[in-house]
Write a structure and sequence with these properties.
The protein has 2 helices and no strands. With 81 residues, the protein is mainly alpha-helical. Helix 1 runs antiparallel to helix 2.
Length: 81
């Protein structure tokens, strides 16, 4: 069952992509905070970092499942794939 517009990704695919991209950016910020603070101050930040990482993992599995079900646009002419 194909549910994507011709020549592009489905809106759900784009939305999941940007959610994961935002969460990865958050992970980078959390990593910088962890690196700049003392270990005694890491408790909550490490918990949030782990929770966000787990969320990214689950959303990535959903993206993979959605891509297998909906598909992806064809490569442009002249591209190798």
């Amino acid at each position: 069952m194909k549910m994507r517009p011709e020549g592009g990704y489905a809106p759900r695919q784009r939305r999941l992509h940007w959610i994961v991209a935002g969460l990865v950016a958050l992970q980078l910020v959390l990593g910088l905070i962890i690196g700049a603070t003392q270990p005694a101050d890491h408790g909550v930040v490490l918990w949030v970092h782990a929770a966000v990482g787990s969320t990214i993992f689950v959303l990535t599995l959903l993206r993979w499942r959605l891509r297998r079900r909906v598909g992806a646009p064809s490569l442009p002419d002249g591209s190798e794939g």
